[in-house]
Specification:
- By secondary structure, the protein is α/β, with parallel strands linked by helices.
- It has four domains: 91 residues, Gyrase A, domain 2 (2-Layer Sandwich); 139 residues, Isoleucyl-tRNA Synthetase, Domain 1; 160 residues, 3-Layer(aba) Sandwich (Rossmann fold), CATH 3.40.50; 78 residues, no CATH class.
- 49% of the residues lie in helices and 13% in strands.
- The strands form four sheets. The chain has a five-stranded parallel β-sheet, sandwiched between helices.
- Strand 11, helix 12 and strand 12 form a beta-alpha-beta unit.
- Helix 4 packs across helix 20 and helix 19 runs antiparallel to helix 20.
- The longest helix is centred in the middle third of the chain and has 26 residues.
- The protein is flat and about 85 Å long.
- About 1% of the residues have low confidence.
Length: 556
Amino acid sequence: MRTSESISDLVKQALQAAQSSGDLPQAGEVEVAIEKPKQAEHGDFSSSVALSLARVMRMAPVTIAEQIASHTPSSTLVNKVSAAAPGFVNFTLSDTWLVDQIERILSEGEAYGNTTDGQGIKVQVEFVSVNPTGPLHVGHARGAVLGSGIANVLEAAGYEVQREYYVNDAGAQMRVFYDTLYARFMQAAGADVPLPDPAYPGEYLADLAAEIHEENPDLAQSSEEEIKSKISPIALERTLTEIRSVLSALRIEYDNWFYESSLTAEGTLAETLKLLDENGYIVERDGARWFKSTAFGEEEDDVVVRSGDHIPTYFGTDLAYHYDKFIKRRFDRVINVWGADHHGHVSRLEAAVKALGGDPDNLTIILNQIVSFKNEGETVRFSKRKGNIVTVDELVEEVGADACRFIFLSRTANAQMEFDLALATRQSSENPVYYVQYAHARLAAILRNASEQGISSDGADVSLLQHHAELELLRRLTELPDVIHRAARNLEPHHLPYYAMELAKTLQRFYEQCRVISDDPADMPVTKARLRLVEAAKTVFARTLGLMGMSAPERM
């Protein structure tokens, strides 16, 4: 159980006891929020429930707080409960309980921090889902890291998570891509074939077409239809292979790659439109089929099947895709991580989910804002070796996956961010990525040094840990379950890098004030106890870095 959850239970028990004894009036169901006090002297946790009960109970909030404090049952968790104006109940954790958490951390290991908040809830996180028409642009990197970070914390919070990439292998953009690919293929064969209008820009496609032609030179003698049928799947697979490789370098893996084309091939699109039509949400107008978005407060209806070629629109296939998510695959919750340019698509998709019989409250669309890059104060682009595209693989090559992940996770999705390339590669405490990973490496070095001297933590008496820096570090270590809970509840993985930085700072103070391995044999009991604390701290650091998708180096 999370520490804040245990404190909340104590407050609820105190309220019930105070009401049963008549010291406080009945107030019905009460929600007890637990917070961290802004000032350390006020304790480790605080509840403002007395302030919210004042009007219902018709009592001064400080009086309610005093009654809650006096009726709080004794617990090994806390050693002090006090009331403070204007109506707070403050809790100070027991030193004995704190040192006991060392064994809990070590026994749970890689599972430490996990919660059961999402037990039995099936969640899908869809992210990146870029059209397979070329390399991933750096603008996609933030959404990639954010989506995987969200999936990681949800999984740690007990949810059944599926990570999905939606492959847009159908639709207008792919037709332009394939038409341009054909022209480029024929040009590589020496034929004077003009580019279509519109054509897909960039040198990537010309290089890919030339590569395919080199492998299949005789194919240029075939009909246009046959050439397209042969080279299109090759181009699609190679582009997807490159996307997979780049995402893998960012330590991003998917549970499922869902192809847009399957929506038509397997009849899901037809099934979706039929359901909407039966429910009165499809109208035919000007030769096209429209979804009645106006029935849900939208300003205008949306085309789902175009007139003329009768090809579904992007929104049309999106309807079928979310029908597949909610109705066919029965996800309890769906989370889409999109770029900020999709803002206008959000409300109409929520309307569509409602029309399909789903609950739009179970659809969460996160829009991640743009990223700018600078180096030594100057705005930069990496190169132009692939047209004008600044690619993710160039970014990873420049600063490394660890820096990418930490920095992209360090801000909320709705905040624009500036990525400082020089800082990301600097090996100093100024670089938060280096600072956090160095903290883990330092702990590994301490344990390595102890092992070389034949010293272990076996038989350690952790009750000897009484220095304020030791207890401060323990307090920080026990926060991870609450950090995971908060990050999963709010879909805000930025709490992880913030926590990692605070943990590293706390470790630094411990390191400065408490020598772990003493030269004095008489200090061996304290050395063993501190080694045990170091083992626990290393476990928590590794767990936190792992949740962020970062490596936990043993040496730096």
